[in-house]
Amino acid sequence: MGAVRIGKFAKFLPRWGWEPYILTVKPELTGTPQDLPLETERHRAITAGWGALASRLSSMIKREQGTIGSARKRNQAASRSRQHDLSRRFVRYVWSKLSTVRLPDRSFPWYRQATAEGMRFLQHDRMDAIFSSSGPVGSHIVASILARRTGIPWVADYRDLWSQNHVVKYHPILTIVEKRIERAVLSPCRAAVTVSPPLAKELNALLQKPVIVIPNGFDPDDYDPRTKPLLRFTLTYTGRLYPPHRDPSVLFEAVTGLKSEGVTPDRLSLRLYSPPDVSPAFVMGSAKRFGVEDFVEWGGYVPYLDSLRRQQESTVLLVIDFTGAEGILTGKIFEYLGAGRPILALGSPAGVIASLLERTKAGVMLSTAQQIKGQLKVWLKEFESSGNIAYAPDQDEVRKYSREEQARLLAKFLEGFTSEAYPRSCMTLSEFEGSVSLEGRDKSTPPKEEHAREESC
Q1: What is the pLDDT of residues 15-26, one digit of tens each?
Q2: Are the CB atoms for 310 and 276 separated by under 8 Å?
Q3: Where in the chain is the domain with CATH 3.40.50.2000?
Q4: pLDDT in tens, 228-271
Q5: Coil, helix or strand for 207?
Q6: What is the CB neighbour count within 10 angstroms for residue 104?
Q7: Is 265 in contact with 294 (CB distance < 8 Å)?
Q8: What's phi and psi for 102, nearest 5 deg?
C-alpha cells in the first residue's frame, strides 16, 4: 500500500498545481515484486542504490562461497553448494531481523546514496516542499538530512507509526531510546500526515507538531469495468494477516455452523490472498481445526491490479480488524470501496473501520461467529435467489476516498503549509479544508464545531 499511496499522490498532485519528483530506491534492490505501474513521468523518478556497503557485503559472501572446497574434485560442487546455502541463510536471517517500520530498518544501506542523490538534485532544482512517507523509516531520515541542509519545508507522512508501532514491538527501554531518535529525526519537520485520527493523536503527543489525517483511498482508473461476477457465492480477502491480531478463525467458526446446516463448498467459497511472507500453514491449519478447509482457497500473493480484479468479481469482500490497537485503518478497505462490492468486516463495532462503514453504508461490522453466520445466511439466500446481493453505498461519501480527492486535499495542505497558514495540532480533512483556501495564502482560522464529527482528532 505504501508504494501505491505515493504513486497516486504523484499521479494526481499535478492537477492541483504541484509537480512531484520522487526519490526512491532502485527497484531491483527491494526484493519485492515490481508489478505496480509507474504513476508519474519517468524523468521525475530519481533512484539511488545501496552504495559501497551493499557491494562489500555481496563481495564478502562471494569470497566465503569460494573458501570452502575439497581436494577431491567430485566434492567441490557439493561443498560450494553447502556454503552458498549457509550464506543465503545467514543473509536471510540478518534481513529478517531488520524491520520495515522501525530501526534498524531494511533501507539503511540506501541512506547515504539517497542523501547524495537528493542533494545533487536539489542543487539544480529548487523545490517548494519535501514530502517523505514511511515505513521504512529511512525515508524520514533522508528527508530530515535534506531539510536541515536546504531549509526546504518538510512534511512527514506516516502510513505506519515508527516507535509507537502497534505491530512491531520492542523492549520498553529500546522503545524509549527509539522515541528519542524519532523526535530528533523529525525535529526539522514542519507538520505530519497520517491515515487515521487515533494515529494522529499518538503522533501529535509524541512529536508536538501539527498532524492532519489523509487516509488511504482508491483510484477508479485501476478497476476494469468488464470484470464479470463469479457464479458461486465468493467471499474474498486480500491483504496481510497478523496472527493473532488479524486472524480469520471467527469466520471459520461461522462457516462451521453453516456447514452443519447443509451449506457445501460448491455453494460458498472463501478466498484469501496475502503477501509471500505470510505462511499458508497459519490459515489452512486454522481452517482444518474448524473442519472447513474444503471451503477455503489459499491464493498467496497476486499482483496489485490482479487483486483488484479478484475483488471486483467477488460476491462479498472481507476485512479483518487489527485487534489490540486503536486506529489501524487498513488500506485494503478503500480498495474494496473502489471495487463496489459489499464489505463484511470482522472486529470491534467501536473502531475506525466500523465508523467508516457506517458513514459510507458499504458494509457491516460483526464481531461474533453467530452474527457472521446469520449475515452470511441472509446473503447466501439472496444470492441464490437473484444471482446478486443488494449494495447501495452512499456514493457521495465513498467519493471522498478517491485518490484524486485526497491529492487535492494534500495540495491544499501543502499550499497552506508552505505559506505558514498552519493547521492546529490535530485536524481531520474536513476541518483542515475549512481552515485554509486552496491558494493557501490565508491564515488558518479555527474550524466550526460541526466539522468535528466522530472521526475528529
Answers
A1: 999 999 999 887
A2: no
A3: 220-399
A4: 999 999 999 998 887 777 889 999 999 999 999 999 999 999 99
A5: helix
A6: 12
A7: yes
A8: -135, 175
Asked if CATH classification 3.40.50.2000 holds for the domain at 220-399, the reply, yes or no, is: yes
24 beta partners: 47
Of 301, 282, 289, 263, residue with least CA distance to 380: 263
Q: Give Cα separations from 424 to 164, 413, 442, 456 (angstroms).
A: 22, 12, 14, 13
pTM (2 d.p.): 0.81
414 exposure class (CB count in 10 Å sphere: 0-12, 13-18, 19+): buried
Strand order in the sheet with 363-366: 296-300, 268-273, 233-238, 316-320, 343-346, 363-366
* 136 residue type, one letter: P
pLDDT at 406 over 70: yes
- C-alpha–C-alpha distance, residues 340 and 259, integer Å: 28
CA angle 164, 426, 448 (to 5 degrees): 155
Secondary structure element (H or E) that encloses residue 54, with its range: helix 51-67
Output the CATH code of domain 1-217+407-457: 3.40.50
C-alpha angle 280-319-221 in degrees, rounded to nearest 5: 100
Q: Which amino acid is at 135?
A: G
The grid coordinates listed for 420 are 505558514
Nearest Cα to Cα of residue 340 among 391, 298, 291: 391
Can you tell me whether residue 298 is helix, strand or coil? strand
98-112 pLDDT tens trace:
556 656 676 777 888
Please state, in angstroms and rounded to a whole number, the distance separating the CA atoms of residues 138 and 111.
Answer: 7
For the ranges 49-63, 68-82, 165-179, the one whose mean pLDDT is highest: 165-179
Scan for cell 485501476, then name that residue. Answer: 222
b/e 30-48 (16+ beta carbons within 10 angstroms → b)? eeeeeeeeebbeeeebebb
Q: How far apart are CA 324 and CA 167, in angstroms?
A: 9
Give the Cβ contact number of residue 26 at 10 Å.
Answer: 12
Task: Give Cβ neighbours of residue 249 (< 8 Å, ≥ 6 apart).
Answer: 286, 290
